[in-house]
Amino acid sequence: MRYNPVELILKKRNNEKLQKSELHYLFTAYAAGEIPDYQMSALLMAIYFRGMDIDEIKTLTEIYIESGQQIVFSDQLNTVDKHSTGGVGDKISIILAPIVAACGAKIPMISGRGLGHTGGTLDKLESIPGFRTDYSHHEFKELVNKVGFAIIGQSENIVPVDRVTYALRDVTGTVESLPLITASIMSKKIAEGAKNLVIDLKIGNGAFMKEMSTAEQLADFLIETGRSMGQKVSVVFSNMNSPLGNYVGNALEIRESVDFLKGAVIPDLEDLTLTLASEMILMTGIKSDKTSAYQMAKEALVSGSALKKFREFIEFQGGNSEICDNLDLLPKCDYQISIKAKKSGWIKNIDCQKIGYALIEIGAGRKKIGEAIDPGAGAKLPWKIGDSISEGDQLGVIYCNDKIRGSQAADEIGNCYQIQDIEISREKLIFKVISSY
Amino acid sequence: MRYNPVELILKKRNNEKLQKSELHYLFTAYAAGEIPDYQMSALLMAIYFRGMDIDEIKTLTEIYIESGQQIVFSDQLNTVDKHSTGGVGDKISIILAPIVAACGAKIPMISGRGLGHTGGTLDKLESIPGFRTDYSHHEFKELVNKVGFAIIGQSENIVPVDRVTYALRDVTGTVESLPLITASIMSKKIAEGAKNLVIDLKIGNGAFMKEMSTAEQLADFLIETGRSMGQKVSVVFSNMNSPLGNYVGNALEIRESVDFLKGAVIPDLEDLTLTLASEMILMTGIKSDKTSAYQMAKEALVSGSALKKFREFIEFQGGNSEICDNLDLLPKCDYQISIKAKKSGWIKNIDCQKIGYALIEIGAGRKKIGEAIDPGAGAKLPWKIGDSISEGDQLGVIYCNDKIRGSQAADEIGNCYQIQDIEISREKLIFKVISSY
Q1: Bridge partners of B402?
Q2: DSSP B140-155
Q3: Is A184 a catalytic residue?
Q4: In chain B, which residues touch A (CB < 8 A)?
Q5: d(CA B64, CA B54)
Q6: Nearest to B105 by CA among B145, B135, B142
Q7: For residue A211, which residues of chain B lie inside 8 Å, CB to CB?
C-alpha cells in the first residue's frame, strides 16, 4: 500500500488516530529520506497539538526500537537503569549507579549530554582526566558484567529513527510532546537492555515539566508503554524548584559526588538517591520490601562499598581514580565570584531554569551541539526554598575563567532568588512514587 | 536584531502573539532561503492550531504585498474585483466581469487554475481557441483600460512570499487556516490594483468552508484587513450545496456562459451574478442604491451590452469570438453517458465535493500542478436540492473521451445524490451580504 504523507498529516491534524501501518510508513520513510523534513515537522507539530493515544505511542516506541540494534544481557532480570527527565545540579546517576551496583544489581547506563538549561552526565564524567564514554556494545556489556555498572554515550546503532526525529524536533519547537517524549525515552531504554527502569520525573521551574498534571500524564504513558513491552517501570516524582545538592557545573559536581560517596552529609542528594536506589533494588528482586531495600542502599553508601565501586568504574573507563583522594586533580577555574544576598528573609522562589542558562554563558554548558565546554566552570548554590538568609550573606559562588562573564552570571543568578519577609516552609523533595510491578 | 526561528515557533506554539518585526523576519528570511522549509512548516502548523489575531494578519498581508510588485491604475476608485473562495460549476467571473464592465467599472481580474475539487477560471477560458492569459502587467493595464476588464494569470512578481508559502502549505496540511487564507487573498487582490473587492464566500459541501461560523470568521478577517489598508470589501455569503448553473467542466461552462449572456434563463447563475454585480456597482459609486445598481446590471445583461463586452474581451485576449455564434467551435468530447435517477423523490443532499473529484478522473481538472486537462470533459448536472425527480429520469450527463472512466464517474456521481420520499424545500442561494463601506 502506498500512502500519501499529506493525507496522513491531515488525519492527525484533524484529530484522527494514525494506524500502525501509517505510523510505520511515516517514520521509516522519513528516516530513509523518502519523506522530506518539512512534512515530518508539520506532522510533529500536529502531534504536539493533538497528542497520541497509548496504542500510537506503543507503536512508535516499537518503530524506534526496531530501527536499530538491541543490547541483550545474559542475566536480564538483574539489570536496572535510571532515567532522569533532567534538572539543575542533577548528579544523581554518578552516585546512584555505584550504590546500586554495590548491592548486586547490574546497571547498563547509556547517558546524554547537556540539554537546554540542564547538565549532562557524560559531560560531568568527562571532566575526570582520562575518562572515556565511547565504547562498543560489546565492550559496554563487558564493563557492566565486570564492574556492575558502566556509563557510556549513545551509539549510532541504537534507535536511529528516534535520533533523526529528535534532531528535527529540537529545531522545530516540537520537543515538549508527551507521546514523543515517551516513545523516545522508552525505546532507548528498552534497546539498551535494562529490563527494569526507574524514572526520576522532575517537576518544577528547573525541570522540563512545570506542572504535576503533565508529569502524571507522562508517568502513565511511560508505565503503560513499559507494561506492554515487558519492561518494569517505576516513577519517582521529585521536586526541581531548588538546585540539587550544593554545586552546579561539571567538575564541581564530580567533586561533590566524591564528597558524598566519602560520607559528606548532603540531605537532598541522599534522600533522592536512596529513594531511587531502593526502587531499583526492589525491581531487580534483590530485596522484597522497601525498608530493607533502603537500608541496603544506605549501608552501601556508609560502608564505603559504593565509593569502592566508583573507583573501579573510573579505572575501567580509563579515568584517573586518584581524583577520589585528591580532588585538585579535577579541572578548576581561575576566578571565584561571590553572590551576595540583597535582602534578609526567607527564600520563596528560585528560578532554576534561568540559573541553568546563566551558567551556560560561562561555559558550564552548550548552546549548540558540539560546542566546547569549560569543565571547571559552574557555581556553588547551596540554598533551597524555605531557607532563611541575611542581607550580605553569601548566596553562592561563581567559578569561572572569564571575569566579566562571571560577574554578569553572578548578577543574573542573584536575581533568580526571590526573598520575602515572611517565613516559608521548605518544600517536599519526593512527591510520590508510582510503580508498575 | 537577530532572531532565533525556534524561539519564534515556540512563541506561536505557546499561544503568544508574534510581533511585526518577528513576522517580517520569519517570512522574508524564509523566502530568501535563510529559514529552512521544515521550520516554516512547523510554524504554519502552529498557526493552524493557534490562529493569528487581526494585527498579525494585517502584518502578514503587508509582508506578502511588499515582497513583490503592485499594479496601480490611474482611475483607482473605479476599479473593482471579485474573488470566489471556490465551488463546483462556478463560472461566475466569466459572466460577471462583462456585465460590470458594461456598467462602466474597471475589472482587473487575476485568476487561478483549478484547486482541489473546484475548477479554475483560467482553465475554462483557455478552452476558447486562441485565448491567452499570460500578459505582462503593462499589457494587463492596457487591456483593462481598453475593454473594461481582463482576466489573466498570476505573474511571478505578485506576492512572491505568499506564493512560496502557499506551495509549502499545500504539501504540509496547512492550507485551511483562516488567517493564512485571509493574508493570501487580501495581499493578492490589493497588489493587483483593484481598490474595491467583493468576495463570493461559498459555504456548503462543495465549498472549502463547510460551516457558516467559519465563513463569518473569515469574512470578519477579510473586511477588517481590507479596512486597515483602504480597501473596500463586501462579502456575499452564498450556498454551495448544489452545483452552480447546469454544467460543470471547462468548455461546457464557457458554453453555458455564452448561453446565459445571450438570454438563457438560468436562475441561480442570474441571482448570484446580479447580486455580486450590484455590490460592485455600488462600491465603485456608479450607483448609490441597491435597487438601481441591480437594475443597471440586469439591463446590461438583457440589452446584450454584456455579451458585446464579452466578445471584445475574447478578441483582445487573442481568442476566437465566433464561439459566441457557433458553440461547436469549442472543444467537445466523443461520448455522452447518461446518469439515471435510481429512485423517485426529492433531492435531499448533493455531495458536490465528491462530484468535483469524480470529474477530475475524466480530465475535467488536475490532480497535480501542471497536469494536462481535457477541456471538453465534464457533466451536465442541472438538479438542485429540493427538486423532485422520478426513477429513471436523467439526473445528469457525463461528457468524456474515455468510456470506461466516464461510466465510473457516472456511477460515482449518481451516488452523490441523496433522494428521499418526503418533500423538501429548495435552499436559499444567497445567505447574506456584509459590506465594509
Answers
A1: none
A2: HHHHHHHHSEEEEEPP
A3: yes
A4: 5-6, 9-10, 13, 36-42, 44-46, 48-49, 168, 171-174
A5: 15
A6: B145
A7: none
Q: Which residues of A touch B36 (CB under 8 A)?
A: 37-38
Whether the CB-CB separation of B75 and B81 falls below 8 Å is answered with no
Q: Per-residue pLDDT tens for B392-408?
A: 999 999 999 999 999 99
Q: Compute and round to an integer the Cα radius of gyration of chain A.
A: 22
| Res A422: pLDDT | 96
Encode pLDDT of B115-158 as tens digits. Answer: 677 878 999 999 999 999 999 999 999 999 999 999 999 888 89
CB nearest A6 (choices: B6, B36, B173):
B173
Where b means 16+ CB within 10 Å and e means fewer, B380-409 reads bbbbbbebebeeeeebbbbbbbbeebbbbb
Residues B167 and B191: their CA atoms lie apart, in Å, by 19
Read off the C-alpha cell for B278.
450590484
pLDDT at A1: 62
- Cβ contacts of residue B356 below 8 Å, gap of 6+? B88, B116, B117, B118, B119, B206, B248, B365
Element at A81 (helix H, strand E): strand A80-84
**Which is nearest to B202 in space by CA: B117, B306, B105, B295?**
B117
Digit-coded pLDDT (tens) for A136-150:
999 999 999 999 999
Q: Where are the alpha helices (DSSP H) in B196-304?
A: 212-228, 250-261, 267-283, 290-302
Torsion of CA B300, B303, B305, B311, to 10 degrees: 120
**Residue B1: pLDDT over 80:** no
Cβ atoms within 10 A of the Cβ of B116, count?
14
Rounded to a whole number of angstroms, the distance from the CA of B39 to the nearest CA of chain A is 5
How many CB atoms are closer than 10 A to CB A324?
20
Amino acid B313: pLDDT:
98
In the block, which residue shows the cell 468548455?
Answer: B251
Please tell me which of the candidates B13, B39, B45 has its beta carbon nearest to residue A171.
Answer: B39
| Separation in Å, CA B73 to CA B77, B89, B107, B145, B417 | 9, 31, 11, 9, 46
Instruction: Tell whether pTM > 0.90.
Output: no
Cα-based angle B187, B99, B195 (whole degrees, multiple of 5): 25
* Sequential DSSP letters for A189-251: HHHTT-SEEEEEEEESTTSSB--HHHHHHHHHHHHHHHHHTT-EEEEEEEE-SS-SSSEEEHH
Contacts with A168 from chain B: Cβ below 8 Å: 38
- Residue pointed to by grid coordinates 538546585: A243
Q: Residue A173 and residue B10: Cβ atoms within 8 Å?
A: yes
Q: Is B303 exposed, middle or buried (0-12, 13-18, 19+ CB in 10 A)?
A: exposed
Are the C-beta atoms of residues A271 and A429 closer than 8 Å to each other?
yes
b/e for A107-137, b at 16 or more Cβ within 10 A?
Answer: bbbbbbbbeebbbbbbbbbbbbeebebebeb
Type of residue found at A402 = D
What distance in Å separates the CA atoms of residue A269 and residue B216, rounded to the nearest whole number? 58
Signed CA dihedral, A352, A353, A358, A364: sign only = positive
Q: Are the Cβ atoms of A46 and B42 closer than 8 angstroms?
A: no
Domains in chain A (CATH in brackets) are 5-51 (1.20.970.10), 80-326 (3.40.1030.10), 332-420 (3.90.1170.30)
Across A40-59, b (16+ Cβ under 10 Å) vs e yields bbbbbbbbbbbbbeeebbbb
Residues of B in contact with A33 (CB under 8 A): none
Q: Catalytic site residue B83?
A: yes
In 3D space, the residue among A247, A214, A244, A187 whose CA is nearest the CA of residue A376 turns out to be A247
Task: Compute the C-alpha angle A406/A411/A412, nearest 5°.
Answer: 95
B326 Cβ contact partners less than 8 Å away, ≥ 6 residues apart: none
Which residue of B18, B41, B44 is the best one to mutate when testing the A interface, meaning the one whose CB has the most A CBs within 10 A?
A: B41
Write the CB contacts of A180 (distance below 8 Å, at least 6 apart in sequence): A44, A47, A48, A52, A60, A165, A169, A174
